[in-house]
């Protein structure tokens, strides 16, 4: 029987290999093109690598978990310590809260010191002006306990007749000098408050009670200093307090005389109200 002749093997590179080589060349050109269009910040890349290495160890061993545990490489060995981890986080949060509270308290202390300093400087300046203008027999000056304002108290008998809210002409000169002091601080809040003693009104035809009388007196003084001393009305706040905030005991004539007064409260710039 005649032996079958084997087919001849084609010479040269197989067709599929040529196609594959072309594809690889195209891909190489594509990635070279992408690389040429991009920029790599070597310093930032090094920072990223160092950060990942120190925190996760993915470039060294790949087996370090939380606090040097072996959760990835050795199964669940870290589960025994997870309670401690959570407690540590809770303690850290509590510590942060205390730190924030301490910072707030420190800021308040600093603000209080600055406020105290400013108010004391205002007090010294106003006291000096009162002495210079020789009106200390008609007014007194003081500082509130929280160092928010300086208070000028003007005796009611100087300003008004009994039961009246019309400013006496004899008091104009004193009130003008007080107004000039207020003018130095007219960018700050100035409260003008009227006060009376606790003796009931004998004549209720005009004002029914001491509260109405004190309010009318405060308004009259506020209008006067705004008109005559050119104070800015937006920073003036008049109000009546009646007999409800006495400066001293009402049991004596001298005490009642001190309680009948008009107060000018000049708030410092750092005050919550000013």
Q: What is this entry, summarized?
A:
The chain is of the alpha+beta class.
Features:
alpha+beta; 5 strands; five-stranded mixed sheet; 274 residues; 7 helices
Question: SSE layout and pairings?
Answer:
Blueprint: H1 15-37, H2 42-56, H3 82-132, E1 139-143, E2 149-155, H4 156-159, H5 172-183, E3 190-195, H6 210-228, E4 236-242, H7 253-259, E5 261-267
Parallel strand pairs: 3-4
Antiparallel strand pairs: 1-2, 2-5, 3-5
Shape label: rod-shaped
Helix content: 40-55%
Structural class: alpha+beta
- Main β-sheet, spatial strand arrangement: 1-2-5-3-4
**Main β-sheet description:** 5 strands, mixed
Straight-line N-to-C gap: 124 Å
Helix run count: 7
Q: List the secondary-structure elements in sequence, H or E.
A: HHHEEHHEHEHE
Overall mean confidence score, pLDDT: 83
Low-confidence stretches: 62-73
Rounded radius of gyration (Å): 43 Å
User: Percent of residues in beta strands?
Assistant: 5-15%
Q: What is the number of beta strands?
A: 5
Describe the structure.
The structure is a single chain. The chain is about 50% helix and about 10% strand. By secondary structure, it is α+β, with helices and mostly antiparallel strands. It has a five-stranded mixed β-sheet. The model is unreliable at about 60-75 (pLDDT under 50).
């Amino acid at each position: 029987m005649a032996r079958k002749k084997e087919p001849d093997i084609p010479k040269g590179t197989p067709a599929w290999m040529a196609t594959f080589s072309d594809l690889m060349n195209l891909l190489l050109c594509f990635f070279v093109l992408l690389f040429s269009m991009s920029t790599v910040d070597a310093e930032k890349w090094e920072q990223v690598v160092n950060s990942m290495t120190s925190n996760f160890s993915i470039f060294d061993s790949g087996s370090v978990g939380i606090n040097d545990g072996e959760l990835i490489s050795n199964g669940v060995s870290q589960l025994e310590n997870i309670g401690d981890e959570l407690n540590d986080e809770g303690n850290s949060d509590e510590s942060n809260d205390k730190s924030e509270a301490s910072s707030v308290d420190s800021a308040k202390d600093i603000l209080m010191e600055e406020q105290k300093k400013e108010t004391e400087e205002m007090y010294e300046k106003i006291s000096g002006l009162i002495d210079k203008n020789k009106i200390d027999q008609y007014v007194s000056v003081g500082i509130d306990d929280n160092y928010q304002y300086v208070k000028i108290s003007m005796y009611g008998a100087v300003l008004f007749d009994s039961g009246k809210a019309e400013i006496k002409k004899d008091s104009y000169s004193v009130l003008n000098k007080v107004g000039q002091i207020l003018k130095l601080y007219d960018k700050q809040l100035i409260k003008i408050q009227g006060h009376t003693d606790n003796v009931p009104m004998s004549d209720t035809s005009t004002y029914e009670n001491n509260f109405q009388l004190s309010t009318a007196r405060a308004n009259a003084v506020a209008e006067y200093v705004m008109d005559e001393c050119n104070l800015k009305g937006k920073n003036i706040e008049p109000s009546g307090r009646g007999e409800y905030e006495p400066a001293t005991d009402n049991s004596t004539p001298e005490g009642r005389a001190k309680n009948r007064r008009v107060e000018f409260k000049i708030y410092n710039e750092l005050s919550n109200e000013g």
